[in-house]
Every structure is written in C-alpha cells, then in structure tokens.
Amino acid sequence: MAGESVIVRGMAVGMAVGMAAPLLLAAAAAAAQQLAPLDVRTFGARPDGSNNAAALARAVDICARRGGCALNFPPAAAAGPAAVTTVYRTSSFALCSNLTLIVPPGVVLRGTEDDASNSDDTSWPTLPWLEYPSMPCNDCPYACGAGCGPVKRGWLYGQNVSNVTITGGGELHGGGRWWWCARDSHQTPRPKPLPNYCSSRNATNTLKDVCPPRMIHLVGARDIVMRNITFTNSVRYHLSTCRADAFSPARALAYSSLRNAFV
C-alpha cells in the first residue's frame, strides 16, 4: 500500500457569482505551495525534545498570510555514517488551507508526552465538544467513545480547511502511550490491566472528565491528501473527520503504514 493516498473531498456550499476571482485565488494558492518549502527551524522549531507547538503555530500563520506554502521538517545532520532519527515534538497545532507538511524519511513528528504540555490548556486546548466551535456531529451526553466532551483538541487539527497535503516518507507519532497511561479509571476504552510501561511514564495527571484527542481531526475539510507517510501510536483514532463529504472508508486504509492504533 506504500505510495497510495488518502483523499478527503468535501462539497463547496453556495455558488460564486463570478468564476474569475475563485480561479485566481486557487491558482495563487497552488503557486504558493509550489515555492521552495519553508524550513520549520526558521520559526524556532528544534528536534531537541522541546515542545515546538508555538514555532509551528508561527509557521502556519505565515503560510496562511501568504495564501499557502509547504513546511519542511529537515533531518538533523548525522555526525557519522550511522542513520540518525530526527524527532520534532509538538502538542496540538492547527492546520491552515493550502498547506503541505513534508516529513522526510528518518524524521518523526511526534506528540508531546509530558504533563506540562498535555495537561495545560494553553499548550493543548480543551474544547467543550469535539467539533467546537462548529455544531457537534453527535447529539449525546458525555462519552469519549461517542466523541463528545469536554475533549482535548486534535493533535493535528483542521477546521474548514482545504487543499492540505501531508507527505514526505517520514512518520507521524501520536505519542499515544502517555495518554493511555494518564486516563482516569472510569474512562473507556482503557487497557486492563495497564501495560507495564505505564509505571515508568511521566503521566501523573488523570485527565478527569476530559476525553483524549484524536490524532488528526478534520472538521468541514475538503481536498485533503495523505501520501507516503507512516502513522503510529495514535491517542485515539489516526484520522477522524466530520462533515467531510465523499470520504471513502476503503481509501482510509491506504496509508503507507498504520501501527499501534488505540481505538
């Protein structure tokens, strides 16, 4: 299945009075994505174990202001002939339209796995319900399994975005183990008994009455492509969509690889 794509397409609402302006905007966005990718290190991102959410927010903001761009997560220079895995850590950050994320081979974009990053509402926002501020997709009481809330925002979150690509041959690691160990005992699903690794994880917060995040959560999104990328260790679902019309469940299995999903 390597090299195949996941494509989420939605239906545009309403009709443009004139077609020239939308076509020009689309052409400009496409041109912006074709420019040389921006290095996330330019915005302060570092593969040193620190939380890069603020740096990535600055980078995405610049992309949005430009009408679109590509962001590259470059590998660290190896000190010798041995291959070195480069890991960029980040808590939740929001995507924008006309954005390409390039995670090359040997690079891992990984979710944060510490109390300070994951429990803090500034670093990782808690939403009243999963699709906030849009209307909920489910009318239900508090239930993590149904996707209600309060809930931590998706790790990679897109609200009403379009033309987003995630690619490059690298890995997206959701940092799921911290969340699996931190869950309050009344929440389900939860491993029983807890895995042995939980005793050594820095996960002291029980996240009482807060549902864990989706790995990638898209609300009202369209024209989303995920190609040549590996997804591992999601917190809860690798990909969750709401109001993304014409989404093919069969194509959702066409990732390069899915490993260690906790659903």
What is the average per-residue confidence, as pLDDT, rounded to a whole number? Answer: 74
How many helices does DSSP assign? 4
| Strand composition percent | 15-25%
CATH class: Mainly Beta
Overall geometric form: globular
Total E-strand runs = 17
Order of helices and strands: EHEHEEEEEHEEEEEHEEEEE
Termini separation:
21 Å
Please tell me about this protein's structure.
The structure is a single chain. Helix content is 16%, strand content 24%. It is built from four helices and 17 strands. The strands form four sheets. The chain has a six-stranded mixed β-sheet. It has a five-stranded parallel β-sheet with strand order 4-7-12-15-17, with no helix packed on it. The protein is globular.
Descriptors for this entry?
single chain, 263 residues, alpha/beta, Pectate Lyase C-like, six-stranded mixed beta sheet, five-stranded parallel beta sheet, 4 helices, globular, disordered N terminus
List the topology elements:
Layout: E1 5-8, H1 20-34, E2 38-39, H2 53-66, E3 69-72, E4 86-90, E5 93-94, E6 99-102, E7 107-111, H3 115-119, E8 126-127, E9 151-152, E10 156-159, E11 162-167, E12 171-173, H4 176-182, E13 216-219, E14 222-227, E15 230-232, E16 239-242, E17 257-259
Parallel strand pairs: 2-3, 3-6, 4-7, 5-10, 6-11, 7-12, 10-13, 11-14, 12-15, 13-16, 15-17
Antiparallel strand pairs: 1-14, 8-9
What's the quick description here?
This protein is of the alpha/beta class. Helices cover 16% and strands 24% of the residues.
